[in-house]
Amino acid sequence: MTSWTVADIPDQHGRTAIVTGANSGIGYVTARELARRGAHVVLACRSEERGAAALERMSSEVPDGSVELIRLDLGDLGSVRDFAQTYARASDRLGLLVNNAGVMAVAEGRTADGFETQFGINHLGHFALTGLLLPLLLATPGARVVTVSSGMHLRANIDIDDLDSERKYGRWLAYGRSKTANLLFTHELARRLAANGSEVVAAAAHPGYAATNLQTAGPTAEGRKGVERFMRVGNSVFAQSAEGGALPTLYAATAPAVRPDSFIGPSFAMWRGAPKPSPRAPWTLNDEAGERLWTASEHLTGVRCSELKA
Asked: Looking at the chain, which terminus has fewer C-beta neighbours within 10 angstroms, N or C?
C-alpha cells in the first residue's frame, strides 16, 4: 500500500459513483479520477454555478468520461430528499457513495432545518443521504459507502446529550465532534450491514493536511482576513496537494483489500503521503455510542433505515 497511486485504481467501468462536494478540492479530484477509470460519476454540489464549472472542467480533463451534475445542499434535508428521488428515478443501482462534502470551523449557525451547521452538514446531511440511497446500495454487488472524516476527530468526542452544541459552542470543538460523528456513523453502518448479511462495505478516510478551499472558505465568508491569510500560508508551505489528499478516499473507494469500518489516511504522521490504515480515537469504535448516534440521527432527520435491523 505504501506506493499506491491513482495508477493503481482498478477499472471502474459499469460502476456509478456519487461524490458530494465534487466541485472543488479532494471531492473534485476523487470524482475526476473515478471518471478517468471508467465510472459514471454524479457530481453532487450545493452551488449549481460552481458545479457546472466543475463539470465543464472535468469534461475537458477527461474527454471520454461519463459525468453529470445533480444539485445537493446537505444543509437542507428537503434538498437531500430531492436529490435521492432524482437519482432513484434514473437508476436502481449505486456502486459507490462518497460522503465528502463538509464545512470546517465556521461561525456558530444553523442549517435550514435548525441544526448546528457543522453537525448538520458534515454528519446529518450525509446520514440522511446514505439512508435514502441505501436500498440502491444494497441492490448493487460490490457497493461501498466512503465517508470523509478528519484527524481532527481526535479533538473531541460527541456529546450525545448536546449534539447541536447548544450548551457550548466552539468552532473547532464542533468540527471535531462532527468528524467523530462521521467515524461513529461508519462504525455503526458497518456493524449493521454485517449483522444483516450485507456485503456492502462502509469505510472512512481522511486527507491529512491537503491544500483545498476548506481551510479558507469559513474565514473568507466571515471576513476574517488575518485567519484567511494564515490558512493560505499554511496551505502553500505545509500542505500536500488536493491530488495527494484524495488518495485515501480513492483507496477506500476502490482498493480490493479495504475491509468494513476501515479508516484510511496518509502514511506520514496522519498528514501526507501514500494511503494506509490510520489511527483513530477509541470512542469512534464504541458500539453503544454508535447505536445512540444512529437512533438520534434517525429521529432528527426523519430518515429511518428500515432495511438494516439493529
From this structure: C
